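User: Can you predict the 3D structure for this chain?
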Amino acid sequence: MTEIIAVIDLGKSLAKTIWTILAPKIDKQLLFLEPEIVSLTLEDIANAKRENSDPEKDAWLEFPDGTGEALGFITRNARYRNRRELEKDELKTVHGVSRCLAILGAIAEKAGLNNQKDFENKDFSAAIEGVTEFSVSLSVLLPLSEWSTSKEFKQNLVKALQSGFNFRGKQYRVNIQILEIQPEGWGLLKRRELQLPKQAFRSRRILCLIMGHYNNSLYFYQEGQQIASDCSAGGFHQLVDRVVAETTLDATSVSSHDLIQAIYEIRWNNSQVKALLWQKVKNEANLQHQVNQVIEVTEKVSADCWKSIAQWIDRNLGANRFNIDEVLVSGGASRFYKEEIKDFFLGKDVLWSCQLNQLVGRDFDLPAESSMAYRLADAYGVLTKFLVKQS
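Assistant: Here is the predicted structure, written as structure tokens:
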């Protein structure tokens, strides 16, 4: 039976997945699912049809009661645009099972598994019924702040996968080989563990800092033991929300992903902000004035946000701040705050994603210093550990 190996980072700004099929040649692939969700009625499902599109761009699930959900890019469709849901304070696990099902269904389509007939040690009843079966080794990353929900989330995901699910009008059933729920930052730490001799790793006093869109996570290890840990909601979204509130940027008229990326890039490139503002301004002189305003507000807000982050780090580390040997840093927002991080940890070894961003860039043809390379680093580290287990 075809086995898919996948690591899903259920980011609230973008669900990021690295996957491959266990075969003689490991070919790693990326899949992104945007965060918006629309609840579908019986009528919506009755009228739903498969579009000639990448499956993750046309992602919809049908539930046993006849209702369903549309996820990601498809929610920009005129039929759904005014019904999109994006609850910023919502736990990632609230719609986490649906997102995992949609991601695995999209991977199955991309891997060409529809109507496959490699049912190992089975009769062909499933194939006759039009059910596609495949096996999966899956790891899902959750922030530390949601760790109390991980057991329930895992149970619900196992039930959904084993019971079967309907994605884009096709039925799937999954044979679970491995299902792990890991805290964000686990892939980065495992990468460092692989880089160092066993005794050297244990003797290092290591701070792991993951800076994401909604969460910042911190872990301090000494003698191989976790001495301190915390997860705050003070991620990059706070900066985005304040910039939108203080400028003419409109969060209701664009996708959350486009808005976040535009603000993130403005320190180096203002073209994306210009594109977002043009529809509202439509005048070159006014446009430049509004862009300048966004730049000024972003710098002011980023200084405030970094001050808050620095205080959070100090509160959690206490005197351990002065005992750090090295700092492992990753997450998309880490590059936005690159200079601030270097200044804060002056004199310490700062390892930017333990070079995982370089491997991400190499395997997926991305600029190694891009925010996306750093956003994928943690999941890439988990996948590397998975593949070591399989070898």
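The first helix runs from residue 42 to 47. Residues 116-128 have pLDDT under 50 and may be disordered.
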